[in-house]
Amino acid sequence: MSPEAAPDRRQGHAVAGDGAAPRVGILMGSDSDLPVLRQAFEVLKELGIPFEATVASAHRTPERVARYAGSAADRGLEVLIAAAGSAAHLAGVVAAHTLLPVIGVPLKGGAAGGLDALLATAQMPRGVPVATVALDGAANAALLAARILALKDPVLRERLEAYRQRMQARVEEADRRLQEELATVAAAVAPATNTATPAAGTLTATAAAAGAPAAAAAPAAAGSSAQPGRRGDHPETGEERPATKEHPGTRQEMAS
């Protein structure tokens, strides 16, 4: 192992995972980032993935970052997570010193509210990739690291599936409570609705009864106007005209 790749023994990385060798390395630019990174700690612990964490700044301690990233693979780490805010060059610098997959976590804060950190983490030059999650997305960073590890770890794959089922169960439980609450509200509103219904129905029935004669008369009028006049009626007035009498001698004259 070259001196450049040797692990920095002064860093004193915090390791979690029941004494097993850490598989995920987490770097943060400042200890003020720790509250966000705790989300990643919790996910990794729930999935039984041993990890280590350290504070290292791409700007204040660049050599330390380079040594950590350069020695990560030799120390058995398989995925690295780097979280930083503002200029947020940490993930990119880490990716420049290792071939391990690097997941960047841009952090909220600063004058731009985290937009600068998001762009600095995501906009990497070709050849130095960083998988970037959402602002303060430490939990998703841990889950992405777990999915990468699960590609060759069937046991971890089963844990991830169980984790997903637990999330589904929580959503279904939340919906069940919501439906119960809505049913309670509907039951409370129903008596008031039933009380108002007869009054509205009475008014409707009264109005219908009052309008019945007019409605009945309308078809009759329509029916009378629709009947055509009888043969012999006047084409304009409809009055019956007397039938024309045939002269007795007319038939004989026509025959001759």
Topology:
Elements: E1 14-16, E2 24-28, H1 34-46, E3 51-55, H2 62-71, E4 79-85, H3 90-96, E5 102-107, H4 115-122, E6 131-132, H5 138-150, H6 154-226, H7 250-255
Parallel strand pairs: 2-3, 2-4, 4-5, 5-6
Antiparallel strand pairs: 1-3
Helix pairs in contact: 1-5, 2-3, 5-6
Descriptive account of the structure:
It comes from Thermaerobacter marianensis (strain ATCC 700841 / DSM 12885 / JCM 10246 / 7p75a). This is N5-carboxyaminoimidazole ribonucleotide mutase. One of its GO terms (molecular function) is lyase activity. It catalyses: 5-carboxyamino-1-(5-phospho-D-ribosyl)imidazole + H(+) = 5-amino-1-(5-phospho-D-ribosyl)imidazole-4-carboxylate. Pathway: Purine metabolism; IMP biosynthesis via de novo pathway; 5-amino-1-(5-phospho-D-ribosyl)imidazole-4-carboxylate from 5-amino-1-(5-phospho-D-ribosyl)imidazole (N5-CAIR route): step 2/2. Strands 1-3-2-4-5-6 form a 6-stranded mixed sheet, with helices on both faces. Among the domains are: about 140 residues, Rossmann fold, CATH 3.40.50.1970; about 35 residues. It has about 260 residues and is an alpha/beta fold. The protein is globular and about 75 Å long. About 50% of the residues lie in helices and about 10% in strands. It starts with 13 loop residues before the first strand and ends with a helix. Helix 2 crosses helix 3 and helix 5 crosses helix 6. The longest helix has about 70 residues.
